[in-house]
Every structure is written in structure tokens, then in C-alpha cells.
């Protein structure tokens, strides 16, 4: 069991995971979900568990809230009385476009909240694809693109839209990332024109001395558009 957790924690190639565990070692389940939360390659995940204790439900909520790779998650036989916990965790997830919990009852506040977030994520995915295909200084689209730039969902959608292979699509995403970095403060609304490094005699251009372009882009790599607040 420890080996399985180690594999999930470190593997960068597994895409599909079907986890069926009917035992009662709840510490193992929590450790497994913790490892899955950190995993960056698994995009399709099916989970079958014998029982959903409060701690396991909280671990599942943390998985949904913090994992940035999973796009399709099925949790079989999930109890309806714990659904509110997962629905609240969905708010900070931007990569899931499918979440099934085996719920067959009438719509309620939790299921409606989950459905709303899934629709939001699907809409954001389309906007991110538009930005990757045609980068611009549109702030909202740039923010959404940054949230989804590492998502396999975005790669798959771009492959369908362009009918190109994965390498071509990843290059599109890379170029869009570079566009955001090169036009960061213009997109964020801090300046009207670009920020330049070194000497410049151009009007409406903000100058940063003693920083070459490579250093500037490195600094920007630690920031996102949503980190900038304009007054």
C-alpha cells in the first residue's frame, strides 16, 4: 500500500486511475487521497470506497479544491448528506468539467452549485482556448488562460479545434504564455504600453533600468495577472 501511495505521489505518466478499495484502513485512504491531490498527471479518476467517513470526505474535498490536473472525477456511491462539503470545495476548482457522485435524487442546493461550477469551467475552457489561438491584451481572458494553461482539457480541446498533434498545440500554449509574460503589465492595466528594460526614448513606455529581458521574464513567471490590483 505504501508503494502505491509512493507511485501516485511521484508518477508523471499515469493518465487514468481506477481506485477500488473495499477495506477499512482509513489512514491508507487518506494518505492515498493526499498523494492524489499532489499528482500532476492523472486526468481521469474513478473512486470506489466502502465507506465515506468525515475525514475521508474532507480529504476528497481537499483533492477537488487543490488538484490542478484531474478533469473527470467519478466518486461512486457518495452519500448525499456529505455532498455540501464537496460542492463548496468546487468553487476553487477550474479544471474539472465532469464530476459524478452517483446521486439520483432531486436537485438541491449542493447539486445546483456543482452544476454551476462545471458549466463555468467548461465556459472558461473555451475562453482559454480562444486566448491560446489568438492572444490579446484582454485581461479577463488572460486570467482564465493562466488558470488553465497547464490543463490537459485545454490541450485536448485545442487538438480538436486545430486538428493538430499534441506537440503543435503545446507550442501554441507556450507562445500564449510568452505573450502574457511580455505584455504582463499592459494586460493587467498598469501601463498603456509595454514595460521596457534598459534605455528607451519612446513615449508612454515605462522603463526598468538594469534588468535585461531574461531577468524580467523570470520575475514575471512568479506572478499572475490576478495578482495585480489597479487603483
UniProtKB/TrEMBL annotation:
Gene3D superfamilies membership: Ribonuclease Inhibitor
Superkingdom of this entry's organism?
Eukaryota
Question: What's the name of the protein?
Answer: Uncharacterized protein
What organism does the UniProt record list as the source? Ornithodoros erraticus
